[in-house]
């Protein structure tokens, strides 16, 4: 019996400055597909019905490269405040029906539909008291990560500059770790070298 995925929102965080990369991460070329377009395609394939994309701005180049018609877009007017500022905006746009949210940083664009489905399966079969599901590979936690809506207030209570993983580390007993084969779940794209390696990996999967 298929798992009901209708009550999960995905928050795609794509408003960073990309200073080390030298170009917007949302538009990184991953096997002839922009990183953001790839992420949205995979989320449709899961499927995740409600997707919020937090952006620095919506440029003509972005509109030409990425179809945004079927997602909710939100602009971070103070993106230099860090990823937490984008997460707050994403949480403000959660669907009213969502009982969980998937946090998808644009730095980690090479997740697959099967990875997300594995997280959702773990979410729906979790023990009572478990409210966080994270992927892991090689003993490292990665993204995307899934959180109960009830944790929204914990994220909103974080101080400016605090990393969001404070919420994950707060109580290990409420975290479910799902071990997956995809090494790119634990690899951020920060530099042109990262981009080039990810493009090779994306092309190999096509």
Could you explain how this protein is built, in words?
This protein has a single domain, classed as Spore Coat Polysaccharide Biosynthesis Protein SpsA, Chain A (Alpha-Beta Complex), CATH 3.90.550.10. Helices cover 31% and strands 19% of the residues. It is built from seven helices and eight strands; from the N terminus they run βαβαβαβαβββααβα. It has helices at residues 35-45, 60-65, 83-92, 113-124, 152-156, 165-170, 192-205; strands at 8-14, 50-55, 72-75, 100-105, 132-137, 140-141, 145-148, 175-179. Strands 1, 2, 3, 4, 5, 6, 7 and 8 form an eight-stranded mixed beta sheet that branches. A hairpin with a 2-residue loop joins strand 5 (132-137) and strand 6. The chain is globular, with a radius of gyration of 16 Å. The two termini are 28 Å apart. The model has no long low-confidence stretch (mean pLDDT 94).
Which helices and strands appear, and what pairs or packs with what?
Blueprint: E1 8-14, H1 35-45, E2 50-55, H2 60-65, E3 72-75, H3 83-92, E4 100-105, H4 113-124, E5 132-137, E6 140-141, E7 145-148, H5 152-156, H6 165-170, E8 175-179, H7 192-205
Parallel strand pairs: 1-2, 1-4, 2-3, 5-8
Antiparallel strand pairs: 4-7, 5-6, 5-7
Compute the average pLDDT: 94
CATH architecture heading: Alpha-Beta Complex
Shape descriptor reads globular
Helices and strands, in order, run as: EHEHEHEHEEEHHEH
Quick take:
By secondary structure, this protein is an alpha/beta fold. The chain has helices at residues 35-45, 60-65, 83-92, 113-124, 152-156, 165-170, 192-205; strands at 8-14, 50-55, 72-75, 100-105, 132-137, 140-141, 145-148, 175-179.
